[in-house]
TrEMBL record:
Residues 22-156 form the DDE-1 domain. One of its GO terms (cellular component) is nucleus. This is Tigger transposable element-derived 1-like. It comes from the Eukaryota. GO terms for molecular function: DNA binding.
């Protein structure tokens, strides 16, 4: 849970108004060498937020793969869609462009969106990707993304 709550200036001026309880999920991914940026998966509760309609935002041009879920959770279907639409093509292009063998490992934690048998859901073009799971109850200790990437991202939000 967050240690503090951020509310807009307008919300503090409205008497009896509760702050917005809006949430979203960001799925981070990186390669070990750090020289390939893979598009993030963003899961929000709304497919087309009002702000997007008002400002005519094209979700295809965002630097994230925008997906929606009523509870703003990453589901197996959303995760597989991200792997097949974003991760697989980006990694394959990177390996081909750098004359590297078509071998890749996707290291994931044991979140419900990452169930066993994930390799069976990958497109045939991406059967070079091996999916490995972190051991249970070790994610907070071993999760590479928790070490610096996510914490640095959160720090930039609070500046």
């Amino acid at each position: 849970m967050p240690k503090r709550t951020f509310i807009t200036e307008e919300e503090t001026l409205l008497p009896g108004h509760n702050p917005m309880k809006d949430s979203l999920i960001l799925l981070f991914c990186a390669i070990a060498s750090g020289d390939l940026k893979i598009k993030l998966l963003l899961v929000y509760h709304s497919e087309n937020p009002r702000a997007f309609k008002k400002h005519k935002v094209n979700k295809g041009q965002l630097s994230v793969l925008w997906q929606s879920n009523p509870k703003a959770w990453v589901t197996r279907l959303l995760f597989v869609k991200w792997v097949n639409a974003v991760f697989g093509p980006a990694v394959k292009k990177y390996l081909v462009d750098n004359n590297l063998p078509l071998k890749a490992m996707l290291l994931v934690d044991n979140a419900p969106a990452h169930p066993p048998g994930l390799e069976e859901d990958l497109l045939e073009d991406f059967n070079f990707i091996k999916v490995m799971f972190l051991p249970s109850n070790t994610t907070p200790l071993l999760q590479p993304m928790d070490q610096q990437v996510i914490s640095n991202f959160k720090k930039t939000l609070h500046k």
